[in-house]
Each structure stands twice: as structure tokens, then as C-alpha cells.
Amino acid sequence: MSTCQSDLAGQAQQPQSAEQADSRSNITQVQSAAAQIRSERLALEVRRALRCQNQKPVRPDAAELKQPDSSVKRNTALVKKLRLITEDARAALLEDIYRVNQSKYVSEAVVAVAEGSLKIKDVPAALEVCSALHQRYAEFGSGLAAELARTLCAAIKDDEPSSLLKRRGSLKLLAELLLCGVHDDTAALLTVVRAMATVDFRRDPERVPACLGLLASLAKGAGEELLGFPAKLPALPFEAEAEADGEANAALRQARAELAAEQAAYQAEAAHRFRLTPEQLQPFLRAMTRAFEQGCTALEAEHGELLASERRAAHTLNNRGEVPEGMAATYERQRALFEGLQRSLAQLGASLERSLPDLPESRVSRITSDEGGIMVLTGRDLSETAMGPFEDEETRAFYKSLPDLQVLVPGELLDDAAADTVSASAIESSTAASAATDGEAAGTAVAAAGGAAGGEGGGREARREADTLLARLPTCLSREACDQLAQELCLQATKGFRKRLVKTLCSVPWGQLQMLPYYARIAASLNQVFPDIGFALVKAQEEEFEFLQNKKDPTQRSLETRLGNIRYLAELAKFRLVPFGTLFTALKMLLDDFSAHNVDIAAALVETAGRFLYCSPETHTRMANMVEVMMKLKNARNIDARQSMLVDSAYFQCKPTARRALQRKQRPPVHEYIRHLVYDCMDEEDLKKVMRKLRRLPWAAYEAYLVHCLLGAVKGRVSHVPLVASLAAGLSRYHPSLGIAFVDALLEEVRVGLEAAEAGEYQRRVSHMRLLGEMYNYRLVDSKVVFDTLHLLLSFGHDTPEEAEMVDPAGNFFRVRLVCALLETCGQYFGKGSAARRLDRFLLYFQRYVLAKPMLPLDVEFDVQDLLEHLRPALQRFETFAEAVDAVAALEAEDAAVEAQGGWQGEDADSDSDVSSAGDGQRRRISEAEVEMEVEPAWGEEAEQAVRMLGPAKEVEVDDDFEREFSQLMLEHQGRPANAFQGLTQGEASPSGPPSAGAPPQESGGSMTFKVLTRRSGGGGGREERARAVQVPASSAIVQGMQSEAAAEAAERAEIKRLVLEADKREQLAAGLPQVLPLATFQRQVDQDVLAGGARGRPSGSRKQRQGSGIDAGLTGLTSRPPGSEARRSASKRRGHL
Question: Do the Cβ atoms of 803 and 796 come closer than 8 Å?
Fold first, then answer.
């Protein structure tokens, strides 16, 4: 009885004790909230008291500062203590501050406090110490704020992100110093906040979470003062807020009363707290908001990359069975960064009253072997799998287009058969029992099941019909026959018949492997309405494979059985009856023991289902890896040739070549020969041989193709560009049309390059510019073409701002490179005359174009500097775009004035001179192709004149006997009468002198008269000379040679006369001087001087040496005249150049 009473008493006390525990818990929560509010109120009181003291400090004067100790030792000790401020050392530090005079060491104290390692819990002590120093030394507060800001900004840029976390206390101290009135510089704190808010996550992903964490702590500690957010008091539980009734809750009511009092005191104290003005709040709030938004953007991007890494890792795990260590480490690092960024953003968002963005969930949350991982088809083009896993449309229809038996077969029959469907467990037990007997595996098991069910079919007639249908299986060799038989089998689909059908499908006739695809199609068609058939068939084949694999029978009969089994599994996989994992498992087992029959079985599997698995998106990567492993094993193992051929055939059947073999473009033999000469044989040593061989081509048929090849040769090495120009210059002497076509093609390419400025063609465009310069050097083009091209580079596409932005953007400096390439090649020849003036004019436009661009990159700027230093060392570059524009405007105004007065006549004359120089085959430097060569017969020509070498002539041998006799003759006849050589002065030639010195010899009909001087010894030792006329036929070699020499000298005199006149005229126009002589008078003087020089300037010597001596003497006479001396000196230089 007492026991029962005690149990009842205990049961009554249990509710009371539970209520008391809840009451105590509520009281504790209320008291904790009151204590937290009290601590915050006390902190506000301390802050307000310190601010009052710091706003109106009472600093000691000079006399009072003399009393404390100002020794170096005490100051050094105090500075060391300031580097490590703690709550325990606060009292000692304050005492030392008042005992030591630090007026001379304030900067050291500032640096010590700013660089010290301060913890969050020690910030109140540091704040009190800094207030004491500020109240004694006026410069301490502002100096400490600036030094703290500098230290924090340096920590943000530090290489170690962990160093920034150590500055959390310094950031809080900087904010508290502002709130307590130690300094009033909000710019220092704002600089630090902005520096933390602008850190880029992409550039420095490890530093952003640390910066966001510091900003979150700052916003949480001073959100009301710096950002304007209201203070958040601690929340109470619902039970604590409810009304307390009864004596048991008296303590709770008392705790709530204390909490209410603390709240009222806190509100009263918070009303006096210091806050920034709205104008001062906005920059802090904008910086914090910007940091949060950028962090959210980075969080979403990092989340996307994390999901991609998870998918890749899951995909790799699915294919390879493990994740590489490098991939796992990369994933863990990405996940750590993501989680750190998410935590920091959550803290900052809570302080700013902002929420984080919604992130999509991932199907793979961690690196696992989850089958939900996404398979990705990588490394293949969509065009490769246009037909999918099948080779052609007929094959695709065979495996994909199955008959819809649910439509073709009456529904009542299907419903009855479905009610009688055998369970999967029954088939598993029957097949498992049969697998233990012999190597025939599942076939015997299904036969036993079929025998047991034979009597269940009812009636002999039904059994006879079933036997007839099953006997038709080996005869189904077409898709239509398979579909028809599947439709008829559905009519007999009883439980026993389906067992017999599975047994028959497993028993493929021996040696008839071609029946396997048709058996598999029948099974796949029936599997739509009778899933147990497909399940039983696949299960039987899998168990047969495992049995034969473990048996390791080396006989040929076992090999044939295994080949039929693996091909059957592969065909069933094409109809998606066998899971893909089953085939990969079987292939891995075969590759693990890649020897003997396993090689044949693996090759058969890959050959049958390899292409299907390789071209299917979900199995592509894994199959590609498996076949590569198989090929590596084949190369590493010592297998026989037959098996090696089987593996190769299976590999290429599974993974055909991605594209056809590159086919060489078929060209005519002559085209191939031209390309060989231009691209392969052209170098400095063999250039003349190349030119000789090219000249033998049928020029009318292959000139256009040769131009094409020459233009394409510049795509090779840079050293080929001068050779191409040299070859073109040499060929143009014999075929002028080549030079014209080549120049036209090059200028067309230049313009096309400006119209479609593609980055991939930049190197080709530079080569074109170098080729154009080399063509000027070899006199294929004149200076006008070069300068027109230069101006085209600067002005093309600038008709409208929209077109200029498309063709020549402001940030594209490639045209500057083209100008530099062209002028570096041929600019050294623009040093005098009109070409120099044109270059000076172009450089003005070029500087304006360069200054219109943004600041040039260093490499382009160096190219421009080198170019100007090379061409015009004394040129003063413009500093601003306005200066260049003014210079160009002044030049254009001057041109307009000159053009109004009659234009620049000298420019055209110089241009014509260039053209004529190019036309006669001469070049500014000797062409490698223009060397003296042997005379070779060309196609259709019997002989060809030898090419004369341009340059210094070889020393001509002098006939000493002839010179000696001629000198003796002249000495003997110095005293003869003036008419002794009348025939010579009248233009009649003698054997000892060329007729080119005077008028041509006399002609009479078909002959020419020569006077021959003879000498005869007379009596008494004297000599008798006599001149006798001789008629020489006009067809003789001597007459024709003299006529050609006379014509050549006449042409030379005319050319020199023209050059002298033009040079004099240009110099006078350039100097702004009037013409010294009229043109007709000057021409007559030139003729007289040339003829007079021929009469008086004939030197002694051989015949070849005396040629042209009269012209030299005539030029000497011209240069002695004072008027226009500068022009004639220029003409003399040109004569020497020619």
C-alpha cells in the first residue's frame, strides 16, 4: 500500500519538476538578454565618456611636459609595450603614458600601435590607451588614423590572405577611434572599406572571403553609427514573453522587470550616441552594398563552376571507377572557396538586411558513383553522329523500328497472357539450378522448365501449333519475317509456351551466328508485351558467359560457343535489352586477362557492339577509353598475327577515322614545276638558275600562274621577300608584262587586306608591305606608288566614323606596323629630291594618325621611334594631336596656294624619271638575277643575247702594239698641212679611230666609203704616206657595228641632255629662283658643249676606252658654267649613278 502511494506521489511530482525546469530555462534566457543589453549600454556609456574627453582634451603645457621622464630608454620601452596592447597591460600602459614625456616620439608611438597585432577582445583597452595619448598629444589621433589606413590597405594587397585576418582588430580600432572622437577623418576608414569592397574574386579568390568577413564584422559592430541601420536587441523566446501567472513564476516576472529596465536605460543611452550625418553615411553604405552584390555574382559563378566540376568528377568516376587525385584536390579547393565565400556573404547580408541569391540544386552533391551523374558527349562533332550509333538508315530501322504488338494483337489475348506471366523469381531459380550441371549453362535449365510446363499447354493441337511456330525461328532471315513471327507468337503466349520460347531463343543453331540479330529482334519485339521473356533470355546469357569465362576451356569448340554467347549479348544490347554496364563489365573481365581466347572474345564484342556504344552519348567516353586500353594491351602483349588483326579490325570498326586522309591537290605538271622552282629552289645562290629555267616556259600560258606563285612565296620566310622582288625584276626585263601584272596583284592584295582586316592575316599583310618596298628598291614601281600606298594605309575606311570604327578601331595599331614595315624596307632611298619632300609631307600625316590613336603599346612605339630615327634623325616629333593637326593644315594651305599658281611640275618630272628607270631594267641595287650568264637557247629561239652586268666594268686589255704604232704615227705627222686628214674631219673613218667621234662615213648606194692611210718607204730612207678611198659593202659587220655605235651614242647624248635639263629645272623651282637661261638657249648650249667636248676631249687609248669621251668632255664644259651650278652637279651625280 505504501509502495503504491509513493508511486502516485512520484507521478504527481514529475509534471511539477518539468514545469519548474521550463520556468528556470525562461528565467535564464531573460537574464541573459538583460545582461547582454547591459553590456551594450555600458559600452555606449564608455564610448560617450571617451568622446567627451577626446572632443575637449586638457593637454599639458610645455612646463608640465618637462616633469615626466623623456629619456630615450623609457620612451623605447613604452613604444615596445604599445606594440602589444592587451586588457591585462592596460593599467600599466596608462600609468607609463602619464609618467613618460613622448612629445618627441609621437610618430614612433603611432607606428607601434598601428603595426601591433591587436585582438578583438583587446580593442577596448587599446581604445582607452589611444584616447590617453590623444589627450596628451594633439598630433597622435590624426597620425594614428592615417597609419592604420595605410597598414590595412597594405594588408589587403599582401600575398598572404591570412595576414588580412590578423588585422580584424585594427579595423575595429580604426572605426572606434572615429566614433570616440580621437579623429574625425572619415576618409581614412572609407578608403579601407572601398579597398576591401573592390577586390576581384576572379583575380584573387582566396582574399575576397576575408575582405567580406571584415566588412561584415564592421557592419555588425557599427552598423547603426556608420550605415544608419537600427540597433537589434536580443529576441526572447515565446514562453518568456508570455504573462507569468502564479507564485512559481514570480522569479520570471522579476527577471522580465529587470530586462524592461535595462531596455529603457539602453534606449535612453542610445539616444545620445554619435552617428555620422546622412551625407557621410551614403559612401559607406554604397561601398558595402557594392561589395555584397559583387560577392553574390561571384558566388553564383563559383557555384556554376562547382557544379561543373562535380559533373566532371562523377562522369570520370562512372567511366574509370575512380577520381584522379588532382581532380579531387581541385574540387575540394573549389568547394572550400565556395563555402567560405557563402559564409562571408551570409554574415554581410545579415548586417545589411540583404538575402543571398537562390542557387540551383545539383544532381550530384558530392563526388560519388551515383548513377544520376550526367553523361556528356565530348570530343566529337555533331556531324559524326548524324545517323546515331548505326551506320545507315536500314540498320537503324532494324534496331529501332519494332512492331507495336499491342496494336497488332487483340487486347484480350494480351490481358490473359499478362495474368499468367511467370514471375522473375521462378525463372531465376530454374536457370540457377541448371547452371550447376555442365557447360551448356542456361539452355538445360530452360529446357527442364519447358518440359515441366509441356503438359500445361492443354491439348495436342495447341502443342503442335507451338512446335510449328518454334520451328520457324531458324527461317526468319528478314525484318518482315521476324515481325510476322513475333505477332503470331503472341497468340500462343501461355506460361508454358513462353518458357519453351526462351529455351528455343537460347538454342541458336550451331555455327549460324548470322541468326543472332534476328533472334534478338524477335526477343525485343516480344519484350514489349511480355517483359519476362527478355529478362529470362538476358539472365541465361549472362550466366552462360560467367560459366564459360570461369571454365577457361582452351578447345576450339569452347571458343565457338563463347563467340556465339558474346555476340548474342552484344546484339541484345543494341536492342537495349542488356544493360550497358553488363557489356562493360564483361569487356573489363576480358581485358584483365587479355590472352588466349579472351582476345578473340574481346575483339568479337567490340566489333559487334563497339560502334553502337562508342556513338551513344551515354557510353561514348567509357567505350573510347576501353578500346584505347585494348589497343595498348595488344601492342604490349605478344599475341599472334591472327589475333592482332582481329583487334585492329574491331578497333577501326568501332572507332573509324574521324576524317578522310588528306588528299594532295592535283595540279598540272608545269604548275608543279613552277611551284617547285619558286618555293623550294629559290635562294641567293640558285636564283639565276631559277630565272633561266622560268624564262624557258611558254610565257603566254603560264605568266598568270607564275604571278600567283610569286605573290604566295612571301608567306614563307622573311628572307624570301628580297629574292622574290629580285626574281620579278630580272624576269620583267625580258617580259615587261610580268612586272605590270605582279604590281597590280600586290596592290590589289594590299587593298583587300585593308577592307577585311582579319587578325589571322596580319603576318601576310606585313610581308606584302615588305615586298612592295623591295619592288621599289628593284625599280619595279616608282615612288608615287609607294607614297600612294602609304596614304591609303592612313586614310582607307575613314570616310565616316561608323566605317572607321569597323575597319580601323581606335585600339588597333596594325596599320602603324604596316607603315613601319614599308618604310623600313625602302625609306632609305627617299633622302633627296621630290621623294624626300614627299616623305616629309607623309610623316606629318603619319604623326597625326599616330597621335589620334590611344597610347601606343611599347613594341609599336619602339618601332615608330626606330623608324623616325633612321629616316629623319633631326625630326622633332609632335607632342599633342592639336600640334599635328595644325601642321597638316598649314601644309595643305601651302599646297593649295602653290597649286593655284601653277602646280608642282618637278614632282611629275621625278615620277617620270622613276618610271623610265624602271622601264629600262635598271635597279637601285644590283639584282641577284641580273648577273652575267651564259647564252642559252630558249623555246622557239635559236640564240639569246647575254645579259650585261650592271656595275663596275672589267678592266679592258690594251693592245700595246697598236697604241705604240698609233702614237708614232701622230708624232710623225704633227707638221703636215691642215688638209692632210681632211677625210677624217669630214666624217670619213680610218682604221685607227672610231667614226663616232665625228659625222658618220659617206654612203653610196649599198656601200660605205672608208679612207685608208698607207705608208710606203721611199728612196733615201724616207717614208711616203697616202690616203686611199675604199668601198665597204653596207651588209658587212664593220659597217653595221659602226652604225649601231653611232646610234647608241646619239641616244646617250639625248638622255643626258634631258636629265640635265630636268635636274636644272627642278633645282631652280625648289630654290624659288628664276630660270637663269631660257629653255631653248640652254638646250643649244648643251648641244654645243657636247659636240665641242667631242672635238677637244678625245683622250688617247684603245677603242673601247675612247667611247663616250666626247660626252664626258661635253658634261665637263657644262659643269664649268656658273648659272645653275647646283643642278648640274646633281646631274653629274646622276650620270655617275647611271
Answer: no
Same domain flag for 282 and 421: no
Q: What is the pLDDT of residue 655?
A: 80
Spatial contact of 377 and 342, defined as CB atoms under 8 Å apart: no
- Does residue 678 sit in the same domain as residue 729? yes
Give the CB-side neighbour count of residue 926, counting CA atoms within 13 A: 12
Q: Which helix (H) or strand (E) holds 298?
A: helix 278-320
Domain assignment of residue 367, yes or no = no
Structure confidence by residue, pLDDT tens digits, 819-863 = 999 999 999 999 888 888 899 999 999 999 989 888 888 988 998
Angle between helices 393-400 and 516-527 (to 10 degrees): 50
Which of 1003, 1027, 1006, 999 shows the shortest CA–CA distance to 1015? 1027
Predicted pLDDT of residue 1072:
62
Last residue of a domain, one of 573, 599, 623: 573
Q: Is 837 helix (H, G, I), strand (E, B) or coil?
A: helix
Whether residues 204 and 313 share a domain: the answer is no
Query: Has residue 21 been placed in a domain?
Result: no
CATH code for the domain in which residue 216 is found: 1.25.40.180
Tell whether the torsion through CA atoms of 882, 884, 890 and 892 is positive or negative: negative
Task: Give the domain extent around 696.
Answer: 672-919
> Does 246 fall in a domain?
no
Please state, rounded to an integer, the average pLDDT across all residues of the chain: 74
How do residues 559-609 score in pLDDT, each as one tens digit? 888 999 999 999 999 998 998 888 988 998 899 888 888 899 999 999 999
Other Cβ atoms closer than 10 A to 414? 16
Give the end of a domain, one of 602, 633, 658. 658
Residue 590 and residue 566 in one domain? no
- At 856-903, the pLDDT tens digits run 889 889 989 899 998 988 888 888 899 889 988 888 888 888 777 755
Residues 6 or more apart whose CB falls under 8 angstroms from that of 803 comprise 797
Say if residue 423 is in the same domain as residue 484.
Answer: yes
Question: What does each C-alpha distance from 246 to 243, 255, 443, 550 come to in angstroms?
Answer: 10, 15, 86, 83
What does the CA dihedral 266, 267, 270, 272 come to, rounded to 10 degrees? Answer: -120
> What does the alpha-carbon distance between residue 1092 and residue 259 come to, in Å, rounded to a whole number?
132
Please tell me the distance from the alpha carbon of residue 477 to that of residue 488, in angstroms, as a whole number.
16
3-state secondary structure of 460: helix
Q: How many CA atoms lie within 13 A of 594 on its CB side?
A: 23
The predicted-structure confidence for 954-1011, as pLDDT tens digits, reads as follows 444 445 566 566 665 555 544 444 443 334 333 333 333 344 333 445 454 567 777 7
Residues 1098 and 1042 in one domain: yes
**How many whole angstroms separate alpha carbon 167 and alpha carbon 211?**
11
Per-residue pLDDT band at 1103 (split at 50, 70, 90):
very low
Q: Is 136 exposed, middle or buried (0-12, 13-18, 19+ CB in 10 A)?
A: buried
Residue 1002 in contact with residue 1009, Cβ under 8 Å? Answer: yes
Residue 27 lies in a domain: no
550 and 617 in a common domain: no
Going by C-alpha positions, the residue among 624, 895, 615, 913 that lies closest to residue 779 is: 913
Domain count, the chain: 6
The grid coordinates of residue 194 equal 572601398
Q: What does the CA dihedral 986, 989, 992, 995 come to, rounded to 10 degrees?
A: 90
Q: Are residues 516 and 639 in the same domain?
A: no
**Three-state secondary-structure class, residue 1013:** strand
Own/partner contacts of 752-760, CB < 8 Å, gap of 24 or more, are 754/792, 754/793, 754/796, 754/797, 754/807, 755/796, 755/797, 755/807, 757/807, 757/808, 757/812, 757/814
Nearest to 565 by CA among 439, 471, 390, 433: 439
- Bridge pairing between strands 1002-1004 and 1023-1033: unpaired
